[in-house]
Write a structure and sequence with these properties.
9-stranded mixed beta sheet, Alpha-Beta Plaits, alpha+beta, 6-stranded antiparallel beta sheet, Jelly Rolls, Rossmann fold
Length: 603
């Protein structure tokens, strides 16, 4: 492997070696590639500076802490990796929304009264709540003040484009040429940013149709609107009955970009969203609680990807708390794990359902261990041992084309990945029970982990036949700087089986941190009403709003100017309620317990 290649993520190396047809038929290998422009968008970690060091045809968005998003031709990626200041390069990953009577269960009512312990009550006053998601129905009454004006202090629609500007890209020096309201945020190269005044102008038209002519941002899926209602809705459309956790907070909204029609946002858009929120919070001079209710299963689940390490940096920037849902992979059968013993082969079986169009499996292991991998087709045919070898290996078994890539440890990832991409030779993959046979060669620890593609991207029946529910949290909830939030059913006081779990034993940083209501939650809906939702997507904003209340008490109300970051996490963990059925805390299902704001305040 060339020196430059070692600074390039395994998956990106495989994607560059794959043919055009292989990338098009794969779920992961084309993420970040623009076929029309024949360019890649990649994540870069670097030291020093990139200014003046890269060709003019490379588009560079510099982020905080030595991270950047770079768009460049594919054949120039090795040149990027060869730059001495570049430390590592990753391709983007697809992100999935974690879909699948919370206020009282979270002990928030007691802190939102006029009791003397909390004068004026805790409502998020003076704090920013930022939601990075699918956008917002900014017309919804719950996101407007009593005078009808918006509570949104700033909004960036990454999918937006400026009228009269091709592709929405207008250099800052040509900002005077734009038509109408909105602008590309300073330091970024896409989307449209709207101010409070511009959103108010849209609201003052009195109709959605006319308002969208001024600020055309819309939440098509409704997910972001639902999340925001839990974190910070003020309940105006329900007479206060369905208000959220921090109803008096001001809001920052980022609608994540979807590079393709009917596509999913990517980690590159998420990283830029974090950067935008941090810059805005600093410009406003306000503390910020940030909510992330999206994720993906790719990676070793140990907090070491560039997305995770970047978010760790952002968690330490300013007066900030970041909360993320653990995902809904807990009971989907997408994870298998085990430990090999010398001389004892193991067979891992997985069911591929009918009409499955895509499948990939990551196998992560200790680099010191050596074992052969053989793939067994449902009809008994075998191919293997698979790899290892330089670059991508290709096999045909049944009607399925198999791409295999044996990765090497990297500077930020000491474990070894073997990546298997199943590509249908026809329309669908061969269905039935497949086998992955692991034959020990040299065993030191013997521990291995396997993850399938995200449940949202595969059929309901496709799963490992002997799955492990442990280590099913999604990235970025696995980042150490994030408060990871699992879900429980507040009606039965029981853990929600879909909620992603942490490692069975995590001595240094227990994950998740705590759980919040995530089953049948009533929240704001696009169009002005309310809807019932379930998933860790809707558990996370309870904690985001709770963090805003703690920061109001500490920072806005002057009781503790340092109540943010790790201190807020510690207070939330300390106040968590224990649930029936658990004897050990923290644990890998609900962490320190269920959110209780009242008991998390140090009074």
């Amino acid at each position: 492997m060339a020196e430059g290649d070692q600074k390039i993520e395994n998956l990106l190396n495989l994607a560059m070696e794959a043919t055009k047809e292989e990338r098009e038929r794969s779920e992961n290998l084309e993420v970040g590639y623009d076929e029309e422009e024949q360019t890649w968008e990649v994540i870069v970690r670097y030291s020093g500076t990139l200014e003046g060091q890269v060709p003019r045809n490379w588009a560079v968005v510099q982020l905080s802490g030595g991270y950047a998003i770079v768009t460049l031709p594919q054949d120039e990626i090795p040149a990027l990796a060869a730059l001495p200041q570049v430390e590592y390069v990753e391709m983007p990953k697809r992100l999935y929304f974690s879909l699948d009577a919370g206020r009282a269960a979270s002990c928030v009512s007691a802190v939102q009264t006029s009791q003397s312990v909390w004068p004026g009550s805790l409502t998020g006053r003076g704090i920013l709540v930022a939601v990075i998601d699918s956008g917002v129905d900014y017309f919804h009454p719950d996101f407007r003040n009593g005078d009808g004006g918006t509570r949104i202090a700033a909004m960036w629609d990454q999918t937006g484009s400026l009228p009269g500007v091709t592709g929405g890209s207008l250099p800052p020096e040509r900002d005077s040429e734009r038509i109408g309201v909105g602008r590309i945020p300073e330091g970024f190269l896409m989307g449209v940013e709207y101010t409070r005044e511009e959103i108010d102008a849209a609201l003052e038209t009195g109709s959605r149709e006319d308002g969208y002519e001024i600020v055309p941002e819309r939440d098509v899926s409704g997910h972001g609107t639902q999340v925001l209602g839990i974190a910070a809705g003020n309940g105006r459309a329900s007479g206060g009955r369905y208000r959220g956790m921090a109803p008096d907070s001001d809001l920052i909204i980022v609608k994540l970009g979807t590079p393709r029609e009917n596509g999913f946002p990517r980690t590159t858009e998420l990283m830029q969203a974090f950067e935008y929120v941090a810059r805005k919070a600093e410009a406003f001079g306000r503390p910020v609680a940030v909510n992330v209710s999206i994720g993906n299963v790719y990676g070793p689940h140990r907090g070491t990807t560039l997305l995770e390490t970047y978010i760790n940096r952002m968690a330490d920037r300013g007066r900030c708390v970041i909360a993320a849902g653990t995902g809904n992979e807990g009971n989907t059968g997408g994870h298998a794990a085990g430990r090999l013993v010398s001389g004892q082969p193991q067979r891992i079986e997985l069911l591929v359902n009918d009409y499955e169009t895509t499948m990939n499996i990551q196998i992560w292991k200790d680099y010191a261990d050596e074992f052969e991998i053989t793939l067994v087709h449902p009809d008994g045919r075998r191919v293997g041992p698979l790899g290892p070898g330089a670059g991508a290996a290709r096999y045909r078994i049944g009607t399925v084309d198999l791409l295999v890539y044996y990765g090497e440890p990297g500077p930020y990832q000491g474990r070894q990945e073997i990546y298997l991409d199943f590509i249908p030779g026809k329309t669908y993959l061969d269905s039935g029970v497949w086998g992955i046979l692991l034959t020990p060669v040299r065993i030191v620890t013997g521990e291995y982990q396997m993850w399938m593609i995200d449940a949202r991207a595969r059929g309901d029946g496709t799963r490992f036949l002997q799955p492990s529910a442990d280590a099913t949290m999604t990235d970025p909830s696995t980042a150490y700087g994030v408060i990871a939030v699992g879900a429980y059913d507040a009606r039965s006081n029981s853990y929600a089986a879909f909620s992603g779990r942490g490692w069975p034993e995590e001595p240094y940083s227990p994950k998740p941190d705590l759980a919040a209501p995530g089953v049948d939650i009533t929240t704001t809906a696009v169009g002005g009403g309310y809807v019932s939702v379930s998933g860790t997507s809707f558990a996370a904003p309870f904690v985001t709003g709770a963090a805003a209340l703690l920061m109001q008490w500490g920072i806005t109300d002057g009781n503790d100017p340092y109540l943010y970051g790790e201190k807020a996490r510690a207070y939330l963990r300390s106040g968590a309620r224990q649930l029936p059925g658990f004897t050990r805390y923290p644990n890998n299902q609900i962490g320190y317990g269920a959110l209780c704001v009242r008991d998390s305040l140090p009074v």
